[in-house]
Amino acid sequence: MIVKTLYVTNKLGVHARPAGMIVDITGQTKSDVTIIHDGQKANAKSILNVMMLAIPPGSEVQFEIDGQDEEDVMMQLERLFHDNFHEESY
Amino acid sequence: MITSTKNHTKKRQRIVLVGIPASPGYAMGHCHTISNREVTVVEETLPNDRLAQEEQLFLKAVNNTIKELAQIKQITVNRLGIDEGRIFDAHLMILKDPTLVNGILDQIKKENKNAQWAVHTQITQLISTFESHKSALMRDRAMDLKDLYHRLMGALDDSGPVIIGDEIGNGVILVAHELNPSTLISLKKNQVIAFATDSGGRTSHVSILARSMEIPAVSGLRNVSAMIQPEDNIIVDGTGGMIIINPNEEDIRKFEEKLEVFKRQQRELFTMRQLEPMTRDGKYITLHANIELTSEADKVLDYGASGIGLYRSEFLFFRKGLPSFEEQLEAYQYVLNALAPNSVTIRTLDAGGDKLVADISISNEANPFMGWRSIRVCLDQEDLFKEQLKALLSANTQGNLRILLPMISSMQELRRSKAHIETCRRELEAQGIFSPKVELGIMIEVPAAVMLVDKLAKEVDFFSIGTNDLIQFTLAVDRTNELISSMFQPHHPAVLNLIHKTVMAAHREGIPVAVCGEMSSDPMSTLLLVGLGVDELSMTPWSIMECKKIIRSINYEDVRETAQNVLKMDDTESVNAYLKKKYSQTITDLGISSFISAQDLDDGDSNSSLISSLNEN
Predict the structure, then answer these.
(1) Does residue B7 lie in a domain region?
(2) Does B138 touch chain A (CB under 8 A)?
(3) Using H for helix, E for strand and C for coil, what is the string for B295-309?
(4) B101 to chain A nearest CA, in Å?
(5) Taking the CB of residue B2, how many other CB atoms lie within 10 A of it?
(6) What is the pLDDT of residue B424?
(7) Shortest alpha-carbon distance between residue A46 and chain B (Å)
(8) According to the per-residue pLDDT averaged within each range, which of B114-128, B231-245, B576-590 is highest?
(9) Do A87 and B99 touch (CB under 8 A)?
(10) Is the pLDDT of residue A11 over 50?
(11) A15 is catalytic
(12) pTM across the whole model
């Protein structure tokens, strides 16, 4: 299992569209993916769970990934966060 | 058709409610109230041997709902364009959400509940969580969940989703607490003539869809759905944002007047559509439309345009996240097919300046209008540019595409762009994709291009003058700076001489000149541009009819002489005074009236800034 902290640097935080983009990635893998924000854990394959964390801009989130392609999934998530979900930066 | 008010045994109270003008137009008729189906949900505890069956019932309902949504999405895309179709993507993703699906399945399998009860409890719980959320963005998603709730319940019920059926008859006014986009899309033509809702704002999806469907609508009426009784007569004034329940005679008289004016404008539009934009002495001027969204392509011909003179492709890039090759192809194809065989001019990505694209533009330039923008960005980001060019070439199956390169300021930029187009064509041909010849044009908007215009004319198939930038760069006036905004003068002799020079050079090489800036929809400027020899005018669709009126009322020889006189003048004031003296009576006599009311000008859509600046002129 790998754990990594990522930073939310887009202007609006993780609202519906970014949540959808996260799930686009996590939904493709057989690995378990958990997203942790503010002490709350959620299944990162569920758009509703991710949305309900209501992660504001400027915050940190942790991803726990467990499975064969964990490295690859983490890399994709990192790229997504790094690109500000293709939105304006914070 | 106006329905007369019938005298009911009990006289009902007249009520006036003011809301948000969601979609312009007027309608009067009887209302049909839809309650978002208060489904009576029964909680059942099932024996173990029924659970597998119940599970199947639920999964089938999910599958049917997914199919139904995909279908509605397709209808939306066909009718209103791909941008509006995206509304349904969130719905589809939520339906496939494991938390939601497994939560419901658990309740069926572990707690022995019936599917209807499980769906009800799980989703209503989610709805209340979202509705009470502190973020407005999240609260808006509750609407999606409600739509899904009703659809799933309908699918389980076997009585179908919440779709308006034939039973309501034709020509009714739909009144509801809120209307889901999918309900609205499922309506048949002529079934509903207007709608009024308690909630929803001007920029909500429903308002946008209503405007696209040309149904008058008023939203934000707070509790209209509770106040209305079946068979009440109501007037919906979508232009003013008002409804009158049980109107009196005076109300009806005023309504009929307003409706008459509105209809007359529409009739006029329709008859003008058939007439050629030709001067009295027979000079034909091509009138084209400027568009920003693919969905606008459907209406362009109705407004009397003979093609699209400027499709601003950057609007595909404004939605955050670069569009893929496929998305671009789909959008270009949609517009090209909608207009074929009429020509469609698509301008390549014109990002930067005041049009920042999230993924590309840098926002901290000291001088963005003279910065890294437009063709400069494209030539630096070759992959991006080539992807767009390939999408354009592949979309041109009907051969009606014209490609327009923005902000060309040197021959080198043009030659490099042409080389890219050639490379893209060869690469596509290697993949077996052959496209018909494409006409290539450049924007004339930088004074440097005018100085080189003789040479540029030999290398392209047409010119398109972008008046905003040309004026801004020629006069060194930032139009957004209020201190000098009066110096932004379209009729400045320097500007007029540059346009003249461009037209002369183009005609020597036998290529046409278009003007696609806002200047082309100002009546005085129209006269002047025609007189200067401009062949095509491209403008917002609703200005086309007025422009046609002007063109049909003038003699080309007369405006040509006017233009020659104006070119000799040395200051803007003289030009304007001369034009006013010569033509203001003609323009007044034409009774030019806009189709767009003041309310529409305030609309929160992408055209608002354009329209308000038009009015300033």
Answers:
(1) no
(2) yes
(3) HHHHCCCCCCCCCEE
(4) 10
(5) 11
(6) 96
(7) 5
(8) B114-128
(9) no
(10) yes
(11) yes
(12) 0.55
